[in-house]
Amino acid sequence: MRVKETVCYILAVLSLAMGALLRYVYTAVRFTGFLFWCAAAVLVLYALLDRWEQRHVWAKWCKRIFLILLLAGVMFFTVLEARVVSQARTDWYTEPEAIVILGAGVNGREPSLSLEKRLETALYYIGQTDIPVIVTGSQGPNEEISEAACMAFWLADHGVPADRLLLEEQANTTVENVRYSKEILTALGVPADAPVALVTSDYHLCRTMYLWGEGAVPVAAGMPDGYWPMTLNYYVREAFALAAVMVSHIFS
Hints:
Elements: H1 3-24, H2 30-52, H3 57-86, E1 98-102, E2 106-107, E3 110-111, H4 113-126, E4 133-136, H5 147-157, E5 165-168, H6 174-188, E6 196-201, H7 205-212, E7 216-221, H8 228-251
């Protein structure tokens, strides 16, 4: 067994171990664990093709195609990740006609850390206006109430008048968050192209704005500095989620 092949197999084993650690121990970054498993598969496949190309012409061409596809994938990911990062910001200059806060996990009846940061960010933004506020998100597994209800309770406890809050409790995905929120805005008489503040986690803004289209006004909620592994995991995952949304739009 050649040195290059041995190195590939060693790295593959280490990637499998790291992936298992992140998937089953440090579960907050499960997606990164999945990527380590993918890296292990890539390393094993490369090692096999590298061995077979010495004896088979087809293996040489397969290796070349494999490397080209891998490079193209890395370049595509880089472009998407740059877009995700560049749009993780707040637009403080555009005056919106409504505010939409997208839901995240709920622990029982209390907001998760991610959701609480969105609410804290929204609270400051809400205090600068008197426009209607839509909170959107259904009830997920192990959640005693819907994400929308959790957000409404939290905002009311922090001084936001109940008559400003509109609950959307059916959305299970970001696509549905956008669709159902727009239906509520239409019922309120808000024009389809009107500026609407979208409050969500910074890494989630790019995909949300892509789905919303014209009129999206980004309001970014960041995670605390000490949670950088989770933040990095979410940013990486979001590039793949954005790619999935783009592909689904192409074939829909």
